[in-house]
Structure formats: structure tokens, C-alpha cells
Amino acid sequence: MKHYMYLAILVICQLACGQNFDPPPLNPDPLSNEGLTHRPHTTARPTGSATVSGTATSTNSRFRSQPVPRERTRVAILGYHNFSATRPVSDMLLRTSELRAQMEKIRRAGITVISMREFLEWRFGNLQLPEKCVLITLDDGWRSVYTDAYPIFREYGYPFHLFLYTRYLTGRGDSMSPEMVRNMMANGASVGSHSVSHPYPSTWRRHQNSGQQAYLSFIDREFGESRRYLEQHFGQVNTYCYPGGYNDEAMVSRLPMHGYVAAFTVIPGKVTCEVDPLRIDRYMVFGTDHSIFRRAIDFGSQESSSRSSSGAQPGRVAASAPPPPFPVSPKPQSCVPSNVPTITAQLSGLSGINLSTVRMEVSGFGRVPAKLDATSRSLQWTPPCRIYMPNISVHVYWDSTDGTHHRAEWSFSIDQTVTIDQ
Length: 422
Ligand SMILES: [Zn+2]
Hints:
Structural class: alpha/beta
CATH class of the largest domain: Alpha Beta
Order of helices and strands: HEEEHEHEHEHEHHEHEEHHEEEEEEEEE
Distance between the termini: 26 Å
Number of domains: 2
Bound molecules: zinc ion
Number of helices: 10
Radius of gyration: 21 Å
Shape: globular
CATH topology of the largest domain: TIM Barrel
Strand content: 15-25%
CATH architecture of the largest domain: Alpha-Beta Barrel
């Protein structure tokens, strides 16, 4: 809903852009062998054209660290939205100076920032990458990506990937114009689809209720028309990002027929070369919670696995994590006979909790509008639609009144023989 909130304030003044940009070129097929348009221009890395192809191996000299066998690489994919130097921060809006600080942390940590094309050639081809990589993605098409973030990415020589929903690509208000996108593509940007209209679960569900054929037509329109539009303007597009992270089996099964080879969610986790390419984890970097970014670039922990192509993710992060310090439902590692399970965390036993900081994230949905009862301190959410994924991870975040951050996580599975709403 936040996207719409921002759409409602499109009247906010447009920022004049003081950068001098290179002439716009047309960009390239992310999986072609034409070579990257991105040329790092800082001394932090070797400069020069970095040609990667489906057959490239460990000889790539662009990377900051030595490439390793594919299965040893882990990628933290960062997801950003909007930026401002002055407007109040929110989950969706990050202080511009904080973005710079984060890029500097990546540089100092010796982490390699890879392009989407390199990511795909690593996942599908035999390109070898360094052990620790970051892939930068930015959702929706906010104008501040051009005015605030792009100069920083250029300064650091970092490539980045824009997930654009085509109805927002107008250049009016807070949105970017196609011309801005083309300018950025001269210097490290690549483009993927984020649908036509950015539907949220309630919209998907409405179409679902109109019958299977109507639902599939709606999916085809959002997937197909957005890709056609983006390809007309920017060259080949083969990546998709689920709005709000929401996805189901019907969507996943129809992505390939529209030419998408990879699709991205909003579930935090390191990505390995075994990742299911149509449900790839990302760390959404909130303007209000910098701990997410810290976790993303922490490659020292065991927080490494991602859903594999085999589809199983039993417990994933939660299996090795301690159980939540409060009663939860469904119980950790349980199998529930419902595909619309109500998820509850009973927080009444926690002392010194800052109630305004409590939030819940659920795999496949991202941050969910869980209700917190101020009296009983029960945090509860019921999915607005059936969950098709067999395994569900739940994360609950909160701050103590002394400002320390906390997180609890658990996972459960859904009985796959259940076919109707319970
Ligand atoms: Zn979005």
C-alpha cells in the first residue's frame, strides 16, 4: 500500500538534477556476449571493459577478489526503493547519506558488487564470482534513484538493476522517465520488470475470484505487457520482481512463457547457485532499520542457504536459529492442515518492548500488516489468500525501549494435501 501512498503525493516538487550524464546508449541483452556497458571508474577496482559471457570462467579481472568455484559464492541481493536528503525516512525511503555510507561499507568489506548479467551467468552458466557478492536492485522507478542514488553508484563504479513497473514510468512527479533510465544504462544500470500496475495481493485475489481463466489472463497481461513495453524502450528484459514479494504457483509457472528466466522476492537470505531462479531472495533495505543492511553484508554467519531448485527449504534459516522467546502459532517446524494459516506471536512475556517497532515478515509476502493487540500483546496475521508454498518462514522484529534491536524467527510447513481454504 505504501507505493500508492507515495503515488498520492506526486505533487511533491521535482528535484533538478545537477549531474552531467553521458549520452544515452541502448542497452544490451543481459545475457548476450556483447560485453558490459558498465565500466568501473574508481581506483577501487581494475578498470577497463569487463567482458563476461556464458562461457567465461575465473579469468575475469574486474572482480575485487579472486573468483571461486560457483558453489562457494554467496550473493546478498539488496532491494531499495526511494531516497531523499531531507524528506522523512520510512521503510521505503532511505536517507541519501545512508546509501552512501552503505556503499562505502561494501567497498571497505571487500565485497564485490556484481551486475544482474553476471548474476545470471553465474546462476545459469559457468561464470565464477568471488566468494562474497552483492547485487543492487531498486524497485518501482523512483526519480530519486536518478537524482540521489545514481551519482553514488557511479562514484563507486557499482552496477545496479532497476525493476520498473511500466505504469509508473512517466517522468512526472516522483517517477523516473524512460530518458533517465537510458542515461543510467550508459553507466551500469540494467532493467527488469516489476509488472504493469504493481498489483497487491488483494488485486491478484480479486482476479483469482473471477475464475481461473480470468486470473491467468491478468497474470499474462502484467507479465507480458510490461516486458514488451520495457523491451521497446530499453532492449531485452528477462528478469521479474514480484510486487510486494507476493507470488503463487500460477505466476511462477507462467513466468518462463513470457521470457523471464529469474524472479525476485522480498525474503532476506544469501543466494547460492542452487537457488530456485523464479523465487530468489532479497534483503529489502528499509530506511528505518539499518540492521537489515548489516545482516545482508555479514557473510560470516551461517545465514547462507536459499531455497534450492529442489523446492525444499525445510526451516531454512529458522532450523538453525533458536526458537522464538515467546509462544507462536503455528508451532516451529510443525505441519499445518490449512493453506490460510493464522500466524500469531504472543509477546506478552517480553518486557521493555517498544510496541511501535514490532513488525512481522512472512516468506512470499514480505512485511505483512499484522495486527498487534495493545492489551493482550498478541501479534496476528492471516494471509489474504491461499499460500501455495510448502514451507513458510516467519520473522518478527522489535526494539526494546532501550533501543536494542531484536529478531525472532521460525518456520512451519503446509500440508500439501490441503486443497481448499480452511
Ligand atoms: Zn514495488
